[in-house]
Write a structure and sequence with these properties.
Helices cover 31% and strands 26% of the residues. The protein has 446 residues and is α+β, with helices and mostly antiparallel strands. Strands 6-10-11-16-15-14-13-12 form an 8-stranded mixed beta sheet, with helices on both faces. Strands 1-2-3-5-4 form a 5-stranded mixed β-barrel. Helix 4 packs antiparallel against helix 6 and helix 7 crosses helix 8.
């Protein structure tokens, strides 16, 4: 059998015999001619067949032609077929200027005639039939973009001597607190699904790795139904040694984002514009940096008072400060810095001259927080004191404190939600669209 050729490779191929395979997207069954739009993982192609409706006595091949005609007439949307025929280059063909005249057709997998979802189906319905939803070129492009984005981040990390690690997702104790944890049976005891790789990223600094990264799952038992929360998500993490402040972490973070966005724009910019009507903007550096207290004043001057009493920024405040940054700096990103110690984890380093503030930041992209980063506290006696300030018993995290009892460099890093970045990059309205298979409080299938 002739080797299968992807649709994307046909334009460079000479006219002549070719075999293509894919899903049937549409069939136009006219009296004298039949057209099929076939889509594979790389693109779409028009197939054409001169219809034969009955046997022709003087044509011994008419039986085979009639069989193909009848097979095409019975094709349902989504059926998987393989076609061998003659490739023609014809600029009159709207679909890529290419056409294959069918010589042989095999139905490899027939689809049910009634598809369970349509273009106007609800998001929940499409999630029920996610494998069909992902055949849509727009949905498919999301994960091509994800691949390119992560590849660019990996190139940056590797080129800058980072080490990749894979931390365990089963933990004997909480990573930050006992809130929002999934507890699971573990032989004769209990274990917890990791909220983040935080402790083990820091262990790598004490191990002398210097600079590390990880892309992996994280779990939050948070019964939230917002468009940006999930109970399982992909976390993009990095940690580096020998930092002077969180400024070093922010510099790393913005350089990574520039690398990722530049790669996406170069490879997928036109397709994103076509399918999402979004112009990918490669951000300039440095990103704007605004201390949280100042950001709250700016938001208040815009007519919105952040109602939270815990010194944090709420979602509307994030949208307001992002709007201000767009108007003032023409930028889609902003670092909000210097968060209060009262709302940050015990391991965030506090300001040298003001223990109420931390060397930390949130990165806001298009009005939504996508990441938290900080300089970490590496002095064991300070860590123990900050644990007690949070009402924690240092004995419960003695294994973690061991990382700092034998010499630890100053260090810092960040964790970033991948699906959120993609959602905001493509101007989608929910991370359900940008997660391959979403997990939330009411969704465990498919």
């Amino acid at each position: 059998m002739t080797e299968r050729v992807l649709v994307k490779n046909l334009a460079a191929r000479a006219e002549g015999p070719v075999t293509v395979s894919g899903w049937v997207e549409t069939v136009r069954d006219q009296k004298k001619v039949q057209f099929i739009v076939l889509r594979d993982e790389s693109g779409a192609l028009q197939l054409v067949n001169p219809a034969v409706r009955e046997l022709v006595e003087d044509d011994p091949s008419s039986a085979a032609k009639l069989e193909i005609t009848e097979a095409i007439s019975g094709l349902a949307h989504g059926s998987f077929i393989s076609v061998t025929g003659d490739l023609k280059h014809d600029e009159r063909v709207k679909l890529g200027g290419l056409e294959v005249k069918i010589g042989e057709l095999r139905v490899l997998s027939a689809a049910n005639p009634e598809t369970p979802i349509a273009a106007d189906s609800s998001l929940d319905k499409r999630q029920d039939w996610r494998f069909l939803d992902l055949r849509n070129p727009k949905q498919n492009l999301i994960f091509k973009v994800q691949t390119t984005f992560l590849h660019a981040l990996r190139e940056y990390w590797i080129d800058n001597d980072f080490i990749e690690i894979h931390t365990p997702k089963l933990m004997a104790s909480a990573s930050e607190s006992r809130a929002e944890l999934f507890e699971v049976d573990y032989f004769d005891g209990k274990a917890y699904l990791a909220q983040s790789p935080q402790f083990f990223k820091q262990m790598a600094q004490s191990a002398g790795f210097g600079k590390i990264f990880e892309v992996g799952p994280a779990f939050r038992a948070d019964p939230s139904f917002t468009s940006r929360h999930a109970t399982e998500f992909t976390s993009v993490d990095a940690e580096i040694s020998w930092v002077d402040s969180h400024e070093d972490v922010m510099k790393l973070h913005e350089e990574l984002m520039v690398a990722g966005f530049a790669a996406v724009k170069a490879k997928h910019g036109e397709a994103i514009k076509d399918l999402f009507d979004v112009d990918i903007q490669v951000p300039t550096t440095p990103f704007p940096r605004i201390p949280l207290a100042e950001a709250k004043k700016i938001v208040a001057e815009r007519g919105y008072e952040v109602p939270r009493a815990d010194d944090d920024m709420d979602p509307e405040g994030e949208r307001q400060i992002a709007a201000y940054v767009r108007e003032t700096y023409g930028h889609e990103f902003v670092f909000l810095t210097d968060y209060a110690a009262s709302i940050r984890p015990f391991y965030h380093m506090r300001h040298e001259n003001d223990a109420t503030l931390t060397n930390s930041y949130d990165l806001i992209f298009n009005g939504v927080e996508i990441s938290t980063g900080a300089q970490r506290e590496h002095r064991v006696e300070v860590l123990e004191a900050q644990m007690r300030d949070k009402g924690m018993d240092p004995v419960e995290l003695d294994f973690y404190l061991d990382f700092f009892r034998y010499g630890a460099p100053s260090h810092g890093g960040f964790g970033m939600g991948l699906a959120r970045v993609l959602m905001l990059m493509l101007h989608e309205t929910s991370i359900r669209e940008t997660s391959f298979l979403f997990r939330g409080p009411t969704r465990l299938a498919p």
